[in-house]
Design goal:
By secondary structure, this protein is an all-alpha fold. The protein contains 27 helices and two strands. The longest helix has 51 residues.
Length: 701
């Protein structure tokens, strides 16, 4: 009878979400009609934003619960198909939806490390962890660590690791929410962060994992529809083929490659124009570098002399027989903007010296490890660094995928171990739909920019340029550097975080599609943020408060503590996000390195090595997480230390050092201390082997 009940439950879910999908499509059509009737774009943006948040709030309200099993693991009755969709939404965060195509746009071939790492990681999830953790049961990843290794310390370190990697990850999601909210409502980014936070909290606050799961299924439907429509439209527009995964490579990429060759050839008209802009950037960088050298040598005296030169220039311009008002205005502005002291001058001139990077030739999209250098030896050295970081990033992302607690928690929610395995397949399939499309989107948008924006007149720039520049000038900025009135590629600054969100406007689609894509990006960010905040709150309330501080706490108190902590963590994360600590993709990559270093060695050893014990887990997790965090602190510019890189590895791949340290710690610690008790070794056998102590579908121990 139980099997029939589960089948009926799954059948009802299919019916409900079919109606939901139809209703959402009808809503988009209705908003499109409103646009045709002349409703202002800002009003349409508010409709999309608040209607989707209201929808998620409605699902959260209907899913509210006070039962521990429902709150922490959705009652362990989520069918594999729907758990796969929820996992896809949980996984395809703002980084996947917003940041990945943008990174591929900027980096070309080198950006494929994210695609390979994230998708390949699911093989590790399926083979090494998901089914075994489901058979273990319970509620959280620190639960497994506490039971497997014994004592409170492994559980406590697991809580710290879960908080550190999940908090880093959630900042990226809230950053994405802030960008979307500020662009489509006109609010400032810092205000948009806190407005979007309300949408994040409403689901996880009401019903925990139960509400988050059913909301994430709904969010997946929105985000995949929103992602596909613009890229299919662009594909038809440029190639006449409605399958972008084919047309981008067979038609658009060769055209992009040809244009890149033209931009880099000084003998062509386009190449000559580009070179004129690059020369200006080289001169500006050289001048700034010379000023920094003068400042370092003579300090305040050099600063005063430089300001005097600008003042004399103003006087000379005014003394001319026919004064040029614009030239005088520009010269006076230069005096006004001159740094007030040596510290300000160093900051300003250091930033100016970096514009030399914009003087580099156009990076070829299809070239593997395309790097620059003054000599063949330097080019080869830089290429070696690029290859090394490409492989290091893939490794960190793959292993991090298999260690992220908010993803691994999803496999506690299935009815059985068998469905946990199946849900890994479904999750990978639903993720594949977007990941297979992102590289095509990057190529098609790049061709649109190269063929239509480059070469256009500054007097007739499309509206989307100014719209996005208003949100954040680091994301969108076009300036007429060589004063010829024509847009050159070297004059365009486009941040990767706006590529997907701006695609409908870049392609000239109706505003309703822009609203739809914003709703998709919001769904991606909200779904992942919900799962991450819940992971942090559950780790603190269940593992720290209930398991370690007050084992006699009532169900009501445990859930109340979880909700209180959820609110505190969310507000703290929103505040940190408002400081803009980094771009979305770096923050997410850092979270993966931290998770890989802190969790993966202990989880894998805990499942596959019965000799792994308490001392090994404590030493391994502490070393792994500590080494990874320390390297990021030393080398990531946000912290201001700026220490030399180890082995030329970028801070996003700090797990390159943390993961081996974690394995080394758990091996040494386990071998120098007594083996675990027979009870714990029996637990390992139970988790690893089917039918050893009961049915494969055991729901917990």
């Amino acid at each position: 009878m139980a099997e029939i009940t589960q089948s009926q439950f799954a059948a009802n879910l299919k019916k409900y979400y079919t109606f939901y999908t139809g209703g959402f499509v009808s809503f988009v059509i209705l908003v499109g009609i409103l646009e045709q009737l002349g409703v202002p774009n800002k009003i349409l943006g508010y409709i999309f934003l608040f209607a989707t948040i209201a929808l998620y709030a409605g699902i959260g309200f209907m899913s509210k619960t006070a039962e521990v099993g429902e709150y922490y693991v959705a009652g362990r009755r989520v069918p594999a198909l729907f758990n796969g969709m929820a996992t896809g939404a949980d996984w395809m965060s703002a980084a996947s939806f917003i940041g990945m195509a943008g990174t591929l746009y900027l980096s070309g071939y080198d950006g494929l490390a994210f695609v390979l790492g994230w998708t390949g990681g699911y093989c590790l999830v399926a083979i090494l962890l998901a089914p075994y953790l489901r058979k273990f049961g319970q509620f959280t990843i620190p639960d497994f660590l506490g039971a497997r290794f014994g004592g409170h310390l492994p559980r406590f370190i697991g809580v710290i690791a879960a908080i550190v990697c999940s908090f880093t990850y959630v900042i990226a999601q809230i950053y994405g929410v802030g960008i979307i909210t500020s662009r489509f409502t006109g609010l400032e980014f810092q205000v948009g962060v806190f407005v979007g936070l309300a949408g994040i909290l409403v689901c996880s606050f009401l019903g925990g994992m139960k509400a988050v799961t059913w909301t994430q299924v709904a969010q997946y439907i929105i985000l995949i529809v929103a992602y596909m429509i613009p890229v299919v439209w662009l594909s038809v527009k440029h190639t006449g083929i409605p399958i972008p995964q084919i047309s981008a490579y067979t038609s658009a990429l060769p055209k992009v490659t040809a244009l890149e060759a033209e931009f880099n050839d000084k003998a062509t008209p386009k190449g000559a124009k580009e070179e004129s802009v690059r020369a200006i950037f080289r001169d500006r960088a050289a001048a700034a570098t010379a000023k920094l050298a003068g400042l370092a040598k003579d300090g305040p005296a050099f600063l005063a002399a430089e300001k005097q030169k600008l003042t004399d220039k103003v006087a000379a311009l005014k003394a001319e027989a026919a004064p040029d008002a614009k030239a005088i205005e520009a010269a006076e502005k230069a005096v006004k903007d001159f740094p007030v002291d040596a510290a300000a001058a160093k900051t300003a001139w250091t930033a100016e010296s970096k514009v030399g990077a914009r003087a580099a030739p156009t990076k070829r999209h299809a070239e593997a490890f395309g790097v620059g250098g003054k000599t063949p030896e330097e080019i080869e050295k830089n290429r070696s660094k690029a290859k090394k970081n490409f492989l290091a990033l893939i490794m960190c992302l793959m292993i991090g995928t298999a260690a992220l607690p908010h993803i691994l928690m999803r496999y506690y929610t299935t009815p059985s171990v068998k469905e946990a395995r199946q849900s890994v397949f479904w999750g990978l399939f639903f993720i594949f739909l977007l990941y297979f499309t992102a590289p095509a989107l990057a190529i098609l948008v790049k061709y649109e920019v190269y063929s239509n924006l480059v070469g256009s007149s500054f007097a007739s720039l499309p509206a989307w340029v100014s719209n996005w520049a208003t949100v954040d000038k680091t994301l969108m900025n076009i300036a007429d550097i060589n004063k010829d009135g024509i847009v050159q590629l070297a004059e365009i600054v486009i941040g990767g975080d706006l590529i997907v969100l701006a695609t409908p406007e870049i392609a000239g689609l109706p505003y309703v599609i822009s609203g739809l894509v914003a709703a998709g990006g919001l769904a991606a960010a909200l779904s992942t943020a919900d799962g991450l905040l819940l992971t942090i709150a559950n780790a603190m309330s269940h593992d720290l408060y209930y398991k370690m501080i007050d084992p006699n706490a009532s169900t009501v108190r445990r859930i109340a503590v979880s909700k209180g902590l959820l609110l505190v963590v969310a507000l703290t994360a929103a505040y940190v996000t408002s400081l803009k600590p980094g771009n979305i993709l770096f923050l997410v990559g850092a979270a993966f390195s931290l998770a890989a270093s802190g969790f993966f060695p202990a989880l894998v050893a805990g499942v596959f090595w019965k000799r792994a014990n308490y001392v090994g887990a404590v030493l391994g997790m502490s070393l792994g997480l500590g080494v990874c965090a320390y390297y990021m602190y030393l080398t990531y510019p946000f912290f201001g230390v700026n220490a030399p890189l180890w082995w030329d590895i970028n801070p996003i791949s700090a797990g390159t050092f943390g993961i081996p340290a974690g394995f080394l710690g758990i091996i040494i610690g386990s071998l120098i201390s007594p083996a675990p008790s027979k009870e714990i070794q029996d637990l390992v056998d139970h988790v690893r082997y089917p039918n050893l102590e009961g049915d494969m579908d055991t729901k917990g121990v």
